[in-house]
From TrEMBL:
The lineage of its organism: Bacteria, Pseudomonadati, Pseudomonadota, Gammaproteobacteria, Moraxellales. It comes from the Bacteria. GO terms for molecular function: endonuclease activity; nucleic acid binding; zinc ion binding. Residues 5-39 form the HNH domain. It comes from Acinetobacter proteolyticus. InterPro entries: HNH, HNH_nuc. It holds the Pfam family HNH. Gene3D superfamilies: 1.10.30.50. This is HNH domain-containing protein.
Length: 55
């Protein structure tokens, strides 16, 4: 789960597409509005999602 600061607009986008909203910096996973903050950095999350560490 990727945690990013979101706005009400992000939340509406996320709900409209079944729990996921595409943001400029990645994917906001917003299943029930109860998001957990990840201990990983955004780079580590992207590496986990895409299989490589991008710098």
């Amino acid at each position: 789960m990727i945690y990013l600061d979101s706005t009400e607009s992000d939340h509406r986008i996320a709900k409209a597409v079944g729990g996921q909203g595409v943001l400029e910096n990645g994917l906001l996973v917003h299943p029930i509005c109860n998001r957990m903050k990840s201990d990983l950095s955004l780079e580590e999350i992207r590496a986990d999602l895409f299989g490589e560490l991008l710098y």
